[in-house]
Amino acid sequence: MRRSGPDTGPDTGPDTGQGADHPAPRELVVDALDVELGGTVVLSEVSVRLDQRRVAVIGANGSGKSTFARVLGGLVPPTRGTVAVHGIDVRREPKPLRRAVGIVFTNPDAQILMPTVAEDVAFSLRGSGLDRAEAADRVAAALDAYGLTALAESPAHQLSGGQKQLLALAAVLVRRPALVIADEPTTLLDLGNARRVGGILIDELDAQLVVVTHDLELAARCDVALRFAEGRLVDAGDPAALIADYRALHA
Ligand SMILES: Nc1ncnc2c1ncn2[C@@H]1O[C@H](COP(=O)(O)OP(=O)(O)OP(=O)(O)O)[C@@H](O)[C@H]1O
Predict the structure, then answer these.
(1) HEC sequence for the chain
(2) Taking every annotated instance into account, which residue ranges of this chain make up the domain ABC transporter (predicted)?
């Protein structure tokens, strides 16, 4: 598995140079997006523009939330329509997109690539252009931010599920991507660590955030919420009002 981030792989589009260290329009523009997977319509006619910093994506199981997030991250191609992430066309510009976006999946095991905790975080910075000392400083700061310093030399695969989730987040955020996509980032975490991760994503991150979540308290702390139902974007707006309507639907 390849971790999203700078690399030297083949590219089919221009490198716009839009990374965390470059100013870029912080806007997601989705226009008439359809996604079909295995002959099934998974997303249908989704159009939305999002320039808010924190975007929550909620809705029932199977409603298309993760697929929407995966399209933004370039992991699932649009079948029809266009999607631009900070001015980057997700279909045509895979390399700039990988540089701009960091993705945190629900299952951290899929993201751990190196033997030790510190090596795994450092691996994210390969090809970043940072010199050895700068990279070491960034890794140390990321380990500290996630409470992983004491585990730096521990085998990554022997961490608990929650510790692995923290490591996965550290390994993504150490790159300072301009857009962070997190799919159920607090699912495996105990209350303390869920608060720590929620605090980092919601309160401390400079990047734009798209968080897919069933945790309505986390969603309520975002600037805007989207609700999907049966592959359609059925509601978008102020999280408090949208969540109240969603709760009423299930009352
Ligand atoms: N590769 C695929 N091939 C066919 N169908 C798929 C594929 N991936 C997802 N789907 C279907 O698309 C629908 C939406 O899935 P998605 O994972 O986006 O939903 P979700 O809202 O994130 O659900 P959950 O809350 O359960 O994680 C589901 O019916 C799912 O079975």
Answers:
(1) CCCCCCCCCCCCCCCCCCCCCCCCCCCEEEEEEEEEECCEEEEEEEEEEECCCEEEEEECCCCCHHHHHHHHCCCCCCCEEEEEECCEECCCCHHHHHHHEEEECCCHHHHCCCCEHHHHHHHCCCCCCCCHHHHHHHHHHHHHHCCCHHHCCCEHHHCCHHHHHHHHHHHHHCCCCCEEEEECCCCCCCHHHHHHHHHHHHHHCCCEEEEECCCHHHHHCCCEEEEEECCEEEEEECHHHHHHHHHHHCC
(2) 28-251
